[in-house]
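Provenance and format

Records in this collection were gathered into a single text stream. Each protein contributes a sequence line and a token line. The two records reproduced below are adjacent in the stream.
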Amino acid sequence: MTKAISMDGLLSPWVDCPSLSSVLVSELELDSRRVQPGTTFVAVIGHVVDGRNFIASAIEQGANAVLAQACDLKAHGTVEIIDDVPVIYLDTLDQRLSAIAGKLYAYPDMDLVGVTGTNGKTTITQLIAQWLELLGHKAAVMGTTGNGFLDNLQQAANTTGNAVEIQKTLSSLANQQAAYTALEVSSHGLTQGRVKALSFAAGVFTNLSRDHLDYHGTMEEYANAKLGLFTQHQCERAIINIDDEVGHAWASQLSNAIAVSLKPNTEFESAIWATDVRYAESGITIQFDGKFGSGQLHAPLIGEFNATNIMLAFATLLSLGKDKQALLETAGQLQPVLGRMELFQTADRAKVVVDYAHTPDALEKALQALRVHCEGQLWAIFGCGGDRDAGKRPMMAEIAERLGDRVVLTDDNPRSEEPAQIVKDMLTGLSKPAEAIVQHDRFKALSYAVENASPKDIILLAGKGHEEYQIRNGETIHYSDRESAMQLLGLSL
């Protein structure tokens, strides 16, 4: 239960309002539809919606007070009374909200690990949480696959929730005795100040490749948003993948960086690197050396990018003071993440691998990872999201054709776009478009591949991963790549 705090106490760092000492704040809410009697409504100017348009309806629903973003008409510190309810205006409320919510929702004894980058965030946060649990610590995650403890994740609408949700969730996890929480930190979350007041014991950077250009405009802006985790936030340690060009440049700039590489490296004073990496269906074996000494690490995951993910998780936990030997002894018990290079197989049928890859770079890495395991043909089944960056559609098709043997184009989340147009955009990236199979229905697309593949083939079904829905024409329908794979291979659901 959140402890109530007086309004003048809550806002004291930013505005002086002694007249509001009798107003008690116990719950903050950004969505006016969820306001209940006694809730304090927060009205910010959002990327799409101006929350101040809903002040009247929030008061109608019983809001006891409103925090609203100041503007030219309503100066900072203005207090107006509407139907006996105080409305307090604050400058740049969107950027201050994380700190305001942090005063109300406390979690003093929990260490936070923030993970940012284009690909790998979910896997790394879950590996960190799994590993901590194996060492006897209670650990939670927040991100794409949900918030909470790994055995009981609660669905989340966004990778990084709003500033209030984040603080509220962290406080709730602390009340459930979480000692650590590993959070996926998106570029949107960083730009919009959603994690502004969080204090990270460690921040991790995975990689940077094309994504979200519909929001950021340029790769440079996208990179700057990610860099902000380490330069504009409280972040004690920076664990950086230097095999990524952007990461390499950052590690040179950041004084608290620990450089992580799959190749021997003597360039950085504080670093951990692999001297040898071996891949097999049973998993990845890494010989390592560097700041924390040498040793051998084995984990049952597949693919080069997972070797990077394991090394980043390992370096993070070592930097937090965890015992190296204990980490090495428990690494073999780590589990792949749902919908992340997840293997489905049965005798005498092609293997199906379900992966969340929905960016050019992620698709490339997934196909490269599977190529080393593939004795027959490698199939690539994927789609591209509607109402999102259209520039990546031909790029992903080109990658699938270049690295796969058979290409099947299907739907991802068309949203409001015409699926045929999305596929048309994808086809422009193929040198032999006539050889590609187009099947808009994802289940039928996989069914075609399973029926036509040999037992030695591997089928990559990319794009949806853990998700159990598709969005088309404003409607969300139930669909799961994992269920499709199990059904078509005759595995029990």
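Adjacent record:
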Amino acid sequence: MELYSLQIERHVLGGLLKNPKFLYEIDRFIGESDFYQPTHGTIFSVTKNIILSGGNVDKVVISEKIKNLGISFKDDINIYDYIENLFFTQISTKGLVDSSKELLKLRIRRDLIENTDKIKDFVKSSGGDSIEEIISNVDKIHSEKIDSYSFADEPINLFDGVESLIEETGNNPQEETGFKTPYPEFNRLFGGLKPANIYAIVSRPAQGKTTWINDVAFKTSVINNCKVLVLDTEMSTKEMQFRMAASMSGVPMWYLETGKWRNEQGMVDKVRDSFKKIKNYNYFHYHVGNKTIDEICSMIRRWYYSQVGRGEKCLVAYDYVKLTGEKVGYNWAEHQAIGDKIDKLKKISEEINCPIVTAMQMNRAGETHNRKGSDLVDDASAISLSDRLQWFASFVAIFRRKTVDEIALDGEQFGTHKLIPLKTRFQGKDAAGHHDLIKRTLEDGTEKYTNNYLNFEVENFNIKEQGSLQRVVEASRENHILDDVSNSDGELL
């Protein structure tokens, strides 16, 4: 395997000397460190500085600058003669760009071999480390090197290619721009789950956030035929197996855990029917416990490359973001540690081009011990560390149980829970629907404007979307109209 080519290096230098304007075509690919021969790197650096300063690229000027640096070639080769020979190179812009890319590829090969040696040295000296620490640190060494390469293109005119882009979408219409979820109203308002983005659900304990996260992750993976990884900070894999079995079969979890489901034929049929479906599902669960965020990101990365494959679609669910293995020192507050976790989750979601659904803790202000929904706080102030969360998350919503008063006002047919969007960067078919204030009539007959929200029925770890607040209001108006056109016996006039 070739690790360097002096011929390619001379080819690039000669092309640059003959055509200084080509610098702006290759500067984003290569630099001084990409040349294996140090003197070649120096010639490139000196030439580049002359071009950027507006000077003329002249072999005499370049030679004198190199001499002043105290650099000379091996075997006493004359610098002036060497540079003069480079000026005879004939190359096109495309040829120079291709040679520059090849030069970069050779440098990457050398770097990766060097990085492998670093990993070997680390492993040899890691006798006292745990297996998790070794894997995490090796992955970190490797990832830092890979992430150091940037191949970003130059800025382009925003409207270059916009016509073909829009025409292409017209040729291939679709209902959602991300992964289609099992919730029609969610898809309509927000366009599904978009890759490389964080979806954060905020809730107090025992409000159903774990059920929601697992429900959307599992059903979305089935709908889109993709693999899903669930990272769980609280429940074991065995407990999650029982919960998922209860959700899929409709049989209460108690009957499954105790084995009592065998005593009723109806339950037996439901359980056995659910078994027929699971063979085609790829639902991975991992109990992260006290793992640090670096260890968790390493787990996501390893799972993606080993179980999914580069370029293939997948979904990750993380329940939930909190301080686990991290140590919060005097100089690093808790909100900074949590913010760091969100930031790293965002980066890994971009790396593997995958949506990540996660949850965070709500402040005490977001819960109530009475029946009045008016006493609840359903805005950003109810979110712990809201600033950090809303910076990095693309979608933020509160998920909670409805109060008794709210169920009575909405109607039992509209479910037991509500999802209140606080922030979204996406627009579905009717995205404005979650931003608009909706007028509704309260129990006392007064009218109030309130933000739209989604309704959910949660039963036995299974979730069913029941429409938005807009649908609740529309249903109420329909009933009111029917009441107005009926006689005292309830017959339509």
